[in-house]
Amino acid sequence: MIGLQAEKYKKWIWIYLILLIFEGALRKWFLPDLATPLLLIREPIVIYLVCVGLVRGWLNNNFAKGMMTVGTICLVMTLLFGHHNLYIALYGWRIYFFHFPFIAIAATILSREDVIKMGRVILYISVPMTLLIIQQFYSPQSAWVNRGVGGDMEGAGFGGALGYFRPPGTFSFTSGYTAFQAIVCSFLCYYLIDNKYLPSHLQIKKWHLVVMAMCYILSVPYSISRSLMFTTIIIFIFMLLAVVNNQKKILSAIRGLLLIFIAGLVVVRLGLLGDSLDAFTARFESASDAEGGLKGTVGDRYIGGFFNSLFMDVPFLGYGLGIGTNAGSSLLNGNMFMLFNAESGFGLIIGECGLLFGLMIILLRFGWTWNLLRKGLKQRKSNRLVWLLMPNMFILLSTGAIGAVPNLGMLTLATFLYIAALKRFVWK
Fold first, then answer.
1. In this predicted model, what pLDDT tens digit does every residue of 149-162 receive, in sequence order?
2. What is the rounded distance in angstroms from the CA atom of residue 232 to the CA atom of residue 238?
3. Where exactly are the structural domains of the chain?
4. Rounded to the nearest 5°, which phi and psi values hold at 160?
C-alpha cells in the first residue's frame, strides 16, 4: 500500500539527486550572485517529503526520531544558552529534524529497482564529470571551470601536489566529488557483476561500461584524493567477496576485473594519465609522511577524530547549532574555525551541541549504522547491490561530516540508497 502511495513522490527524490550533483555548478558558474540562497535549494524537497512522511505515518525509524528529538532539545539550548541567533540555530537544527528523517522517508518511497535506475544515471553522469575534472586539473584556478562558490576567482580547488589542485567537479567542494565517485565505484562494480542478469531496460551496453571503467580509473589520480583511493580498494574487495561462493558470479567478476584491466591498459597506453599520477603519488607520500602512514591517516581521521572530539575545549552545552557550518559560522564570526575546529564530523557535533547531547547524536549515528550493517550482512549472499553500497553507507553515516552542504547531501544519498536496496526485488 505504501508503494502505491509513494509512487507520485519519487520524482521529488530524482530532483533531489540532480540538484545534489549540480547544485555546486549553479553556485559557482551560472548563478554566482545567488550562491548563498542556493545553499537551501534542496531544502523544500526535504521538508516537503518529511512532512508527507509524518502525515502518512511513514517514519517508523527510531534512530531518525531520536535525531529529531535531540536536535530539537539542542535548538532550545542554543537559544537559551548558546549564540541566541534564531536563524543560524534553525539552519543547524534542520540537519537533525529534517535531513536524517528524510533518509528514512526517501528509502520508504524508493524501491530496489529505483536504486538501480539511479545508479545507472549516476554512472552515465560520471563520464562527463571525469572529463570536467581533467579540465579543472590542468586549468589555472582563475579559469572559469575552477571558479569557487559565488564566482570566487581564487578557485574551488583544494590543496594537492606539484602545483596542481584537487578538482571539485560540479560540486562546491572536493569532498562532495570524492563521495560522489565512491558511489560511482559501488554501482560500477555492481554492473560489472550483474549487468547481464538485469532486465533489459536496466542494463548498460558493454562498451559503455568500458568507457565508464576508463573514466573511473582516470578519476582516481586526477582527484588527487587518498580517500577515494582507499574507498575504491575497499569496494573492489567487497566485489570479490560478493562472488566468492558463486561460480557463475565469480566468472562475472573475473570478466569485470578483466574489463577494468583492459580499460586501465588503454588509459596508460594512450597517455591519458598525464601528470595526474605524479601529482597523486606526491600528494599520497607527503600526506602519509605527515600523518604517520596509513595507520596514522585512519587513526586521525576516524578513530582519533572521535576521541579527540570528546576532549574539545567547548562549553558543556556547546556553542549552539549552526555555528560549525560554513554558512552559520561565517555569519556569526567570519571564520568557521574561530571557536572550534569543525573539520571533522565529530568535532562539529560536539562543538555545536556540547558533550552530552553531541555524544547522544554520535551514538545515534553509530547505532543506526550498526543496525543497517546487520541487515545488510544478512543479505550478503542474495543481495550484491546492498553489499557493494555498504562501504559508502558505513563510512558516511557513521563518521561523515554534516556541516558542508555537499557532504550532508552525499551522506543522505548513500544511506537512503542502501536502505532502499534492502527491499525485496520486484520487477515491474
1. 988 888 877 777 77
2. 10
3. 2-421
4. -120, -115
